[in-house]
Structures are given as C-alpha cells and as structure tokens.
C-alpha cells in the first residue's frame, strides 16, 4: 500500500517521517525524515495497525506536527471446503510476490509456539531447506517469504511446528526472470570438488555498478543459476548490499553521491527478501541528530553496515575535518562509526579524529583526503567492542564500544607498525589495504589481504586470504592460514569461514568467489566468476538466504 501525506504551513521544503505500529504496540520508524511525502509499505503479519506521519519545516527543526491513520490487514489463508468443520476450514495458501523467485507462504492459525517452512524442488532428491522460524500468534496466520528458488521451477513446501509436526506438502511454481531487467552472467571456473563445503549451495553476490538497469545484488547456486535478486530498478534504488542479516533481510547502501569516498551513498535501507522496505534513513536525517548531539556531520554512508547482537546497526560514514599541520590548514577525510538503534536513530558514534594520529598518513601516498578509508565493521564476541578495518592505514583497530557504553578509545592496532608481533617469521606476513575483517570465534580473524604494499614492491605479488589467531594479553598474532589466491585485486573483497572449516574469499576486481582448504597451501576447491559491468564488492556462500552474517561467531577454528 502507498501512504501519502499532505501538509501546509511547513515552509518551502518540509520533511516527513513515517512510523507504523500494531494497534496497542510501539511505533517503529519505517522511513526517517526525508523530502518524500509518500511511503510504499507492507508487512507479512495480519492484524490491526496504525501509521503515523510527522512533518517538520526542515531537517533541523526541533518540533513538527503529526497525524495518524488506522488500517487492517486480513488473512491470505484460503477457506476450506463447505463440509469441513469451522476449526479445519482454513488451509495453506501460497501466493506470488512482486519478485517471481519469492513465494509468500501463509499457514492457518494453529497451536504451538513457533513455525518454519521447509522447501525443495519437486522431483529432486535434495534435502529440505528451511526458512527461519517465526512465533505463532494465537488465532492468526503465520506468513513466510520463501526465497532461494530457481525460475520456472515447481517446489514442494510445507510448514513444521516446533514439536516436529509437519503439514501436508503443497506446490508452488516460480516465474521467469523479468525481461526488462539486465542480470550479470556467471561462469564456473572450477567446479566444486568433493573437498568443497557442499552443504552450502547459495552464493550471495553484492556488486557495484552505476548502470541503473542492471541487477547487482543477487544470489546464485554454485552452478551460477540465479535463485534470488533485489530489484533495484523497480524500487528506484541504485544500491549495493552491505550485509545479509540472519533471518532473511538485507542492509543496503544506495543513492550514490557525486562526492565523498568511494562507494559513498546517501541512504541506508533494510529490505526483506521480496524487496519491501522495512527501515530507512538518510544522511540528512542523521546529520540533524548529530548536530543536536554536538557531533561532526557526515558526508555519506559507505562500505559497510552490520547488525549487532542487540538489534542495533553499525554503519560507516565519511567525515571531514581541517587540521593544522605545521602551520598549514589541511583537510582530512576519515570514517566515523555510527551505531543506530532499532528505529535507525543515532545511539553511539566514534570520531576518528578524536583518536587517530593525523601525522600518520596513508601508507601508499593517498594523503589526508583519504586518511582512513575504513571498509568493514565487526563486533568482538569476547568483549563487545568493535573492529574497524582501515585500508589506507593498513591497520585493523579495535575501538572501545563495550556494547554501547565505551568511550571509543583505541584498544589496539593490528598490522605493520601496530601493537602486535606476528609469527611465524615469513616474508611479508602482514596484510595491506585489506578488506572484510571478521571474527570467526572469540580470538580468530579472517580477512582478505589485497596486498597493495607487497604489489608495489613486487609486481608479481598476489592477493591473499588470511586467518589470524590473536593473543591480546601477550599482543601476539599467529598466522594460521596465509593462502595465495592466484590473482591481484587492488581493491574490494570479502572473507568468510564455512561450516566445514573451508575459507571463501572474493577477489573483487576480477569478480571471483574462491573457496579454499585452509591447510596444505590452500587447495582451491571452487571458483565462480561474476561478469558485471562494474566490480564485485563482496560474496558469501550460505546454505540458505536466512543464514546471514552472524555478528556473534563462536566455536573452534577448523
């Protein structure tokens, strides 16, 4: 449905904020203040709702005027036959969505606490895949977006209760890929060997392209067949995916800006697997909050947004400051970390200029206008702090977040010239201009080492994938895996550990997803190439689209 607000006596450029709540519940901001006075919105839960819109004269105005409206969403569950009892009348209904590869599975009211949906291709011997579980609301239907489906195929679907009870199997046939959209092609350059983690069969691809008719956030199977995509064209949102959130939502950065750092955008949006907007904010709305808090303004959102365990969202944003360097005013551009609460309101910030030494300039001469070039955020499961990967500094810094109570001071710096020693003693053990640094347990990091410094010293140098085990008491880093990937990617990339212990990396400039065994020199077990008019920013290999990037990793290193 589309909601439209009209307002008078609110200046030449009023701004509107839309919020929704179930009747009697709490309001949740769907889209923060923006110049658009209309909102296209839906939900997968039946019931009575209220929508509220607040209008202000401009972003900086402290007060505004609000209005509300009530509405109801009915069930999609179909009634049963005329001879069935009242309790047994309703039956499962599976409906198409705007995305031909996503089904809406509606289960009738039932007893129990939780439910999930299982699905698999008809006439296949593949194991059942499963959605995330949802709570059952007494007397109401339970609705699931089922995604990860090939086009023009028939699928079996059934729901499963928490006690293991399964429903009757139903079928659903997906549609064709829209002919008006352009999709990248994929080439399997090395088929998955028996050493690959074959339990993980979906590859989520996040590309960056400026061709507005080309889909660049999508998923394939290991054969390169498309099984899901975000329709940036019909949603009018030129964007790229920063991360897949466990449960089946996607954090998107979009509306590219003509200034700021690479990949700079004005809008942070969370969408569901059908492409519906769940939450959205923009740099103007955030800057109004930062100004009220006495914090520096930001130029953009860029590179990364990650869901934290408490439901908050951390996002990178560039900020500028003029610093006196030996009597010369010099403009610096660094990256602020902003943590937004569940309404996408500013909850915590980290200013790089409060803690970084401006005299330590980027390692390859990028200069003060690209002082940090942060490209990933990660939550530390051992202490609740945050890691920030700084490409231009060749450092990963741990900042004192302390689950939102920290003062932001730098706890340590990892990398050449930082606070750790590294072992074993090999040539060029440290990463440089690295990307996507993540914890895989409480003490081990996985990262993509672009290797720009090594390449500047030796043109034959290749990018690497690394595992680093940290001893934060003795300040030692042990290089557990150091896999040479066979090509050089001067920018972008991602890193991941799979459930069987294999490692997966994105060599983004050559648009390759590479799976390797971590030991014995890093045997390559799988390579998939994406052919996009742009670059492949990141890719991850999952079992389903409901897995996502967990912010709370655990378990031993395989």
Task: Please render the helix and strand layout as text.
Elements (H helix, E strand, L loop, with lengths): L1 E3 L10 E8 L5 E7 L3 E3 L6 E10 L8 E9 L19 E4 L5 E6 L6 E8 L7 E2 L3 E2 L6 E6 L6 E8 L8 E4 L11 E6 L11 E7 L8 E5 L4 E4 L9 E7 L3 E8 L8 E8 L4 E6 H11 L11 E3 L5 E13 L2 E13 L5 E5 L1 H4 L18 E6 L6 E5 L4 E5 L10 E5 L6 E3 L11 E5 L4 E6 L2 H6 L6 E8 L4 E9 L9 E4 L5 E5 L4 E5 L7 E8 L3 E8 L16
Parallel strand pairs: 31-35
Antiparallel strand pairs: 1-4, 2-3, 2-5, 5-6, 7-8, 8-12, 9-10, 9-11, 9-13, 13-14, 15-39, 16-17, 16-40, 17-18, 19-20, 20-21, 21-22, 23-24, 24-25, 25-26, 27-28, 28-29, 29-30, 32-33, 33-34, 34-35, 36-37, 37-38, 38-39
Folded structure, characterized:
- With 558 residues, this protein is mainly β.
- 4% of the residues lie in helices and 44% in strands.
- It has three helices and 40 strands.
- Strands 9, 10, 11, 13 and 14 form a five-stranded antiparallel beta sheet that branches. It has a five-stranded antiparallel beta sheet with strand order 15-39-38-37-36, with no helix packed on it. Strands 31-35-34-33-32 form a five-stranded mixed beta sheet, with no helix packed on it.
- A hairpin with a 4-residue loop joins strand 21 and strand 22 (277-282).
- The longest helix has 11 residues, at 283-293.
- The two termini are 48 Å apart.
- Residues 82-87 and 554-558 have low confidence and may be disordered.
